[in-house]
Amino acid sequence: MMLKIKPLCVCEIREIIGFSMSTISNHLKILREAEIIAVKKEDRYMNYELNLSNEIVQEVLGILENLKDEEIQLDKQKALKTNRIDIC
After folding, report:
1. What is the set of domains in the chain, with CATH numbers?
2. How many Å from the N-terminal Cα to the C-terminal Cα in the chain?
3. Can you give the pLDDT at residue 66?
4. What is the pTM of this model?
């Protein structure tokens, strides 16, 4: 859900969820291979974003939007505040 807020680099994702870089990288690789996310290079950053052209992604987003999960809400708020210039 944080990628719905904005594209994020690995450093930003790590800052938000607190997992190790290697764990995040492995998960991002799996999500890319499944075409759930896409990667776009911007300057020196690799930005990860949702593949909104994927119908399954659209369906899952619809389900998650209706959840009142506190952790999802906190991660979305952190995504809004995260600034790669401060952490990368």
Report:
1. 2-87 (1.10.10.10)
2. 21
3. 81
4. 0.80
